[in-house]
Amino acid sequence: QEYLEFRKERSRMLLSRRNQLLLEFSFWNEPRPRQGPNIYELRSYKLKPGTMIEWGNNWARAIKYRQENQEAVGGFFSQIGELYVVHHLWAYRDLQSREETRNAAWRKRGWDENVYYTVPLIRTMESRIMIPLKISPLQ
């Protein structure tokens, strides 16, 4: 009974909801608990249908340019829900270190080439900055 009342109350607060079942790219680090404080950036890409393999092949090479500072937390792609959606999760100490780390990637020979080949595969992209809750293993 309590659960049914909760669902009824919750439904008045929700404007929309979408679910996805995601799989992890094999070439990314497996997400592990992190010491904080950190902020997290979730970058989401909606790809053109039929381009997931090409995206994965390019990022399998590109990820090496972003491993130096241990900012790569995880890379995932949709299996159920909206398809051809990719999520990259990055950890940074703060917004300043995010900017410095991203700029450093552009100075590495080869990074620009990987970006050049992946940009045409993207329909839309979104970036969200998240701050972990105290109970999160990702601090």
From TrEMBL:
Lineage: Eukaryota, Metazoa, Chordata, Craniata, Vertebrata
Biological process per Gene Ontology, one example term: sensory perception of pain
Pfam families recorded: NIPSNAP
Signal peptide coordinates: none
UniProt superkingdom: Eukaryota
Family: Belongs to the NipSnap family.
UniProt name for this protein: NIPS1 protein
GO cellular component, one term: mitochondrion
Domain NIPSNAP: 40-137
